[in-house]
Records
---
Amino acid sequence: MSSKPIVFSAIQPSGNLTIGNYIGTMRHWSKMQSNYECLYCVADLHALTTIQNYSFLKTRTLDALSFYLACGVDPEKSIVFIQSHVHQHSQLSWILNCFARFSELLRMTQFKVKGTQGEKYIPKTNLGLFNYPILMASDILLYQTNVVPVGYDQKQHIELTRTIADRFNSIYGDVFALPTPIINQYGSKIMALLEPKKKMSKSDINKNNVIFLLDDISSVVSKINKSVTDSDRPSAIYYDIKNKPGISNLLEIFSAISNKDVHVLSKELQGVMYTEFKKIVSDAVSKFLHKLQRRYTDYRCDETLLKKIAYEGSMKAQLKAETTLKKIYSELNFFHLFK
Ligand code: TYM
């Protein structure tokens, strides 16, 4: 048995992946492969809560898988799989539903944003959107996960996962490891380009708010050119999320892409005009995306390989998931026909 700590992370293929997904989580994945035992999952069951047209689901799932590989996830080192291929996630989800409280789920910010308008619930909101954090808890707890690299928006869900695990453990002993989120100080909440006080999101209806990983380079340049800065004159480039959200956001994007500290960059960019700064950022992002898209295309063209990787990943994940699920079934004293 491996003694390395266990990492789990996932993205839901509910839309095209964004640079926010990359910076918030995917960029860390390949680096973690040497010191951790890693599981990276495409959370297609989660996508059912928001997706409008299921015919895109398969395409988007394979797109996401190709991006995982293009970002350096190596199926020889990590377990890469599709959530719906490992039935234990749904099985554990039901059990954990019975250990979570309605009031806890009502407090989830993401549900409040997506499932309510002001004080009122949107009548057609599906129940999956409400108990979605329970499925997420199952994803994490099934593998005895120690750390979960995520963006800031998932922090509350990981805290709930810990609460549920702790509650279960307090009754049945140490069944689950308690996971800790890894949330970087910079880059864990990339903001919308035109509205830098709101998060960049796959589902934004204004596409100029979002840099998609599959955007063509000319549109990336145009989106960054249009991005909101501020009215400070002369131009002043430094990190101040409260008073300069647009500039700080561009700095966080640039920092993640160039692997340079935000404050080092601020110093280097002293005296640079905003138009020139945008050009520097868009050059760096374009170069980065160009390379990433080339690697992505190589994988995306080979569906046979993608299916093989997903199949092998699901077999490995199922073995691990079954070990935890068996332990839980036995603690809960379910009746079994076969020993
Ligand atoms: P999702 O698909 O919304 O986002 C995937 C990951 O990307 C991060 N992220 C961002 N980070 C920085 N800036 C942004 N603008 C930004 N937008 C998204 C998210 O924080 C996340 O880390 N429920 C999850 C998927 C999931 C999961 C899990 C994650 C399912 N099971 C278990 C971790 C562990 C979700 O919808 O993420």
Note: The first strand starts at residue 6 and ends at 11.
---
Amino acid sequence: MSIIKAENIKLVYSAGTAFEKTALSDVSFEIEKGEFIGIIGHTGSGKSTLVQLLNGLLRPTEGRIYLEGKDIWEEPKKIRNVRFKVGMVFQYPEYQLFEETVYKDIAFGPGNMGLDDKETDKRVREAASFTGLREDQLDCSPFELSGGEKRRAAIAGVIAMDPDVLILDEPTAGLDPLGREALLSRIADYHKNKKNTVILVSHSMEDIAKIADRILVMSQGKNVMFDSTRNVFSKGNELEKIGLRVPQITKIMMLLKEKGIGTDTSVITVEEGLRNIVSILSDNKKG
Ligand code: ADP
């Protein structure tokens, strides 16, 4: 059984007013437990709307969202439980830090769930370590942390709720290249260790290529592709038509192939590209 299933979703904002806007229509897909899913799409394609539907922050105008086989809106009064099970890290989550210490900020979610102090303490320390914060930073004010560390603290606050599904909306936006790389590898380690489901919305094809098992491609409120990362990036022309691109290394491999060099155009990471180019060069030497 899939962990999340979206069935014929339609979402209309401000229905019946002059501002009516259909943000999503005909969206259906299933996500298996433990998968790492990337969501890509042009600005305004419906990514944020979609992820807010998955954790019950928005209610579909039509269609159903199932979590472990159960319609999440079957009992609207219990929607809070869905929000604990499907943890959501919003864009620029550090703006939501407000407690006097980092510890208290990370402990806020577990506290809301009604966990006791001992369990909360365990969760706070584990979540801080997953995101790469040091123990001594837990006693600091969040405002003493650097930008990247604030982001980690905010993400730790969601991880501390131990959600079955973790959704991250543009988690590396605004960080410098080293900060991006560090945070992304923390997210990859978290997924590897916890083996739970992670959904990452990102503009960075390089980030998605490195980390996702499958990619859901959104365009104008519809999911136009949902396939393995390699298969999606092998459709460079189709992606370009909807304003997206393939990872730069894939593009280089495609351009080299057009020049008559026998490069492998299914390559999606720099490491794979390097291996392929080195093997072509050494074959040429031998020949
Ligand atoms: P993305 O995350 O891919 O940029 P969004 O889900 O934010 O896309 O937006 C999808 C569409 O819905 C866009 O046309 C956007 O302008 C519109 N939209 C988003 N939020 C609202 C809202 N609260 N009210 C009205 N329209 C909205």
Note: The first strand starts at residue 4 and ends at 13.
---
Amino acid sequence: MNDLKKIALLTSGGDAPGMNAAVRAVVRASVYYNTEVFGIYEGYKGLIEGNIRQLSVRSVNNILGNGGTVLRSSRSPEFRTEEGRKKAYSELKSRGIDGLVVIGGDGSFAGAHIFSKEFGLQVAGIPATIDNDIAGTDYSIGYDTASNVVVSCIDKIRDTALSHNRLFFVEVMGRDTGFIALRSGIASGAICIMMPERKTSVEELVALLRKGYRNKKSSSIVVVAEGNENGGAYELAKSVREKYNDYETKVTILGHLQRGGDPTCFDRVIASEMGVGAVEGLLNGNSGFMTAYQCGKIHEEPLETSYTQKKQLNENLVKIAQILSI
Ligand code: F6P
């Protein structure tokens, strides 16, 4: 182990259920290894403003099962500037902090990596975003919980859709990607999953709906990722209505419901593994890595992977969704 004495941690970008479990793990692992640990409040913005407090084992009591982030989060345009990062570094330097753990997504990691190279600071990333769009890791913290929230909402929608023979367009999060849509769409039996990565035209969608109706489907659910190219759920429902009206059509936007709630067991466990892994990696003298989950194991993946590569959809799941929706 190297001579790192003080570690700070922050949560950045959109909050994700399980972030608190990761915060707890970083704090407790640091204390376990006799390293002082500091919480930075409100992400990079708080770092620039010096909103930093030392944490103890007891500071993270009873947060493991809570959604959101006790450290709070932000998106900081100032940290994108060299000036902002200089201010941020002086806040760390004045406290003698030489290691930083960033819990967030690819944008937060890109910032952390530049920061680390500019000031010779050791950094580790812990992937956390409900979108699960971070290249290099199969799962990011929050994705499992958000997908489960979506599935439980669609199950409820299905009850009422069935009772009235209706077609529902359910919009889920995923600004640029369809990971939530694909997983929750399969788990909830959607007839079609509209995702930015797989363009499905309105004509193709209408053909699928007609076929389903002919095959005696009494209700249908179309899951739409918010970043879908033919528009979100309202727009899509309008375009479909103009061409097709066997079913009465309704729209539900799940929105920020998906970001809240208690993390699942899976998210709590990977967050715990990643938190300990990040601290151990830093104490082993490593830097510029994220704790990635691949094939059931946590390993150190270069931070660059997260922001220089685009994560691809699982093609097998795309195929399965098509096969099962007949
Ligand atoms: O957390 C990821 C994400 O939920 C995206 O899917 C969504 O577009 C975005 O964040 C919305 O975030 P905010 O409400 O913070 O702008």
Note: The mean pLDDT is 96.
